[in-house]
Amino acid sequence: MPLFAASTQRNLGMAIAVVAIVGFAVYLIYNVLWAGRGEKGAELDLAPNRKPYLSDEELETKKLDLALVSGLVTLVIIGVALPLYWLGEPGRQQGYVDYSREQFTSRGAGLYEESCSSCHGGGGLGGSTDHTVTDDNGNFVAAIKWAAPPLTTTLYRFSEEEVRHVLNYGRPPTPMQAWGEPGGGPLTSQQVDELIQYIQSIQLTPNEVQGEVLDGLVLQVREDVLAADGALRDRLEAANAAVAAAGADESAAEVAARNLAALEEELREVSEQHIRDLAPSDRGELLFNNGVHGCARCHTPRDSWQFTGPEEEPGAGPVTLERGSEAEAETVARLGGLIPAYIPGGGGFGPNLTNGATLRQFDSAEGHAGFIIVGSQEGVGYGNFGQGDGGGQMPAFGVCVGDRDSGERSPIFGFCTLTDGSARPGTLTAEQIDDIVAYERGM
Prior knowledge:
The protein is of the alpha+beta class. The chain has helices at residues 8-35, 43-46, 56-87, 89-115, 117-120, 154-157, 160-169, 189-201, 206-228, 230-246, 250-277, 280-288, 296-299, 326-335, 357-361, 365-374, 410-413, 430-440; strands spanning 127-134, 140-148, 305-311, 318-320, 378-382, 387-389.
């Protein structure tokens, strides 16, 4: 893209500049190639101070008029061009910002694919990585598959400085290592900035974020809805069977696919209504356990990872043990007390929320909800115990905080302001946060 933003004023200014440059070139050519050409004859006759010069009438009419008109034209050009150039300055500044952002984004995309995509997936859509659990002495306990979160909503919940801190120093005890120089990583401060700019470029729109939140809730209630509506379950099974039976018959496959899509849409509508009909605390439980958009990932032990078992076939890689499966239960029993029990809200990366912990921390549901909305900030206390060293470890779920700490760079960073000038909303609505509070205060 061009360095300077195109504008009417800029185009007019360029035209005036071209006219001035051409005029100056003509002046030089006339003086160097024509008026300044060599002359033949006696110095006594040719020396400017010895030969007869123009009369006063000629000097004070043609020559003087030409000089005055030339000066006036030059002043007009300067008087018009400078204001036009000044009027175009905001466009040039914005053009430079856009150009720099594009360059940072492009380089950040390359760094991401090289260093981050193996865990967080292509385009920041989420992935997983192999990891190990060790005891307090560093001895191996178990092999696990850690779910690396998608990064497409990161700047809704974490500020730019909080993201930079995680990139610089990692996020113990997760597999997220230190990537920046301050934490001993391989990336320079500019490369970290480029990664942050790339992360900003892949953030979802507010509507897409809410769509992902609802998708997670619908997925959680799917089996309950089908169990309660046997007829819909049977029709869905028949539709899936028809798709499988269609095989290479394109016409039959198209009809079967349309029928299946219609049933899936019907199931979604029934599921959404089921969610709306739940009690606030029950909806809060769904939201609490809603993956990267929920709370269990940090506040429930082992929520963000699963055990891995032996290869089913040579070279196929270890299998992932589904939570609640018999194989997982056998692994848990074998490890005994070496791993934490899977207790909802029992504490993991975040503190334990059970046994009335939230009631002791926050006297009212309003205060509890307020903290979930804004998250934690470095040096800012929260709750009855006044902890103030959160440093952004607790995300903000109710407001966008991407450029909260960007300071003078806020106008340039500008993530939390939409193009129409309105504030970008948070990951969750106020009603959803109230539902989470109702669930957590009943733990």
